[in-house]
Specification:
111 residues, 4 helices
Length: 111
């Protein structure tokens, strides 16, 4: 039987554990709220240049979705990415205190 790699447990303060738990809860609740609100439709009018409009039309055709669905998904991904970056920047000081300075440091211990 092959030996499995021992994973060194991260040493986290109770404040770090609380913060991580809060982040997970925040993301979970936002996702559930997003799923619920997804079915309530509103109209949003935006202005884009002709090149971007053409890209949207081609992409919608390529991926077999409506232009509206394509733009909604792009906006959702953008917002989630920005929220993730905001949370990540709040957690960096705690990671550095625990000895994690790069993503590779984390992957090395947790994968």
């Amino acid at each position: 039987m092959p030996h499995s790699k021992m994973v060194k447990p991260a040493i986290m303060s109770s404040k770090t554990k609380y913060l991580l738990t809060s982040v997970i809860l925040f993301i979970t609740l936002n996702y559930k709220l997003f799923k619920l609100v997804k079915y309530m439709r509103e109209i949003l009018t935006i202005s884009i240049d002709s090149k971007l409009k053409e890209k949207v039309e081609k992409a919608a055709e390529k991926f077999n979705v409506s232009k509206s669905e394509l733009v909604k998904k792009a906006i959702e991904k953008y917002i989630l990415h920005e929220e993730f970056q905001e949370i990540r920047s709040m957690l960096i000081p705690f990671g550095e205190k625990a000895g994690y300075f790069t993503d590779e440091d984390i992957f090395k211990d947790f994968s």
